[in-house]
Amino acid sequence: RQLEILLQQIPKTPTPIPHLEQYMTPATIAADVIFTAYHWGDIQDKIVVDLGCGTGIFAIGASLMGAQQAIGYDVDPHVISIAQNHATKNNYPVEFHTQDITTIQTSCDTVLMNPPFGAQKANLKADRRFIEKGFQIAEVLYSFHLKKTIPFLEKLITALHGDITYQKDYEFPIKWIFDFHYKQVVSYKVTLLRITTHH
């Protein structure tokens, strides 16, 4: 609950970019994921990377739960500066970098991510790029996907020689912030996967 309250204070981006599908993971769900990862032993004293971090909810949450190092990457410099300002102001020891997913060269213990769901046509394969990068850099991934895409992802993960060791379903309320969505809240069925990559 305390973690959730702190995560709720993380600012949202005032100018989201539609094709990046920049909606924030709700604090209740983010806190639940971080606790799940913590209980699996994937946060405490680990190096944790948040891919497509937006304003940094997973990176900051991991840091608050005892990560040795927490790093966020996002292609949008605007959200990175919001994340960095919030971290600096609160003395959270989190690093943020503006970088395209394909160019990230690092290694870590755990990736936490909420990649674009491909809810928009232009993004159909976006989450696949995130998973592939996660496999390159981490031993364990926690990743959100539309429930209906899970069979496709299971095939991809098997092809990459990974294992899904845990999954949990959530209802993801997305307040559409873009004009073409008429400002309503749409609820998506989303599944969190814990994936081991056999590094």
Radius of gyration: 15 Å
**Which strands sit side by side, in order, in the main sheet?**
3-2-1-4-5-7-6
Taking the alpha carbons of the first and last residues, their distance comes to 34 Å
Structural class, by secondary structure, is: alpha/beta
SSE string:
HHEHEHEEHEHEE
| Unreliable spans | none
Provide the β-strand percentage band. 25-35%
Gross morphology is: globular
Largest sheet: 7 strands, mixed
Give the mean pLDDT: 88
SS element count, helices: 6
**Total beta-strand segments:** 7
Helix content: 25-40%
Helix and strand topology:
Layout: H1 2-8, H2 27-39, E1 47-51, H3 57-64, E2 69-74, H4 77-89, E3 94-98, E4 110-113, H5 126-137, E5 140-146, H6 150-159, E6 163-175, E7 185-196
Parallel strand pairs: 1-2, 1-4, 2-3, 4-5
Antiparallel strand pairs: 5-7, 6-7
Q: How does this structure look, described?
A:
This protein has helices spanning 2-8, 27-39, 57-64, 77-89, 126-137, 150-159, and strands spanning 47-51, 69-74, 94-98, 110-113, 140-146, 163-175, 185-196. The radius of gyration is 15 Å and the shape is globular. The protein has a seven-stranded mixed sheet. The mean pLDDT is 88. α1 packs across α2 (27-39) and α2 (27-39) packs across α3 (57-64). Helix content is 32%, strand content 26%. It has six helices and seven strands. It has 199 residues and is an alpha/beta fold. The termini are far apart.
